[in-house]
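Record minuted for completeness.

…
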Amino acid sequence: CGSHMTSFDLFMALNDGALSWYLKRWPNHTLKRDCANKPSRSPLAPRLTSNKDHRMSAESEFEKLTSHLTENNDVVCSQMFGKKCLKVKGKAFLALHLKTVVFKLTGDAHKKALAQKGAVLWDPSGKGRPMKEWVAIPAESLSNSTALAKHALVYVSESV
């Protein structure tokens, strides 16, 4: 084995988005076989495409909400935990995380959001400590994102 990228390296790169950066930087690089003579094509390759598609749809949904909600002068684009978010009066109410759009909600809006397919309480650390008011909804399951975003905006702006 030389200094080529192994399956573990590929897995780590796919998880943190570094593979696209790596391949842009060294476009002539090809992924070689592991020492165990495994095929060079990773079984994660199809997943990368689908994750990228979902991430793009989550990003486009977030951008749509951003352009709609930033018409309000109190709403600004910012970051929270290194992720894109929207804030009102310094408090976050909407965020983009991986392939989900995340809303800070309470009451019936919170219950309706959690009822959507694939919706979960948001755990930004990934360590099993979800934030109870935050609901992460996969982009492909979002049906009423504008209404949820407005509920989140009202909830946060009233609590500040």
Q: What stands out?
A: The radius of gyration is 19 Å. The longest helix spans residues 45-69.
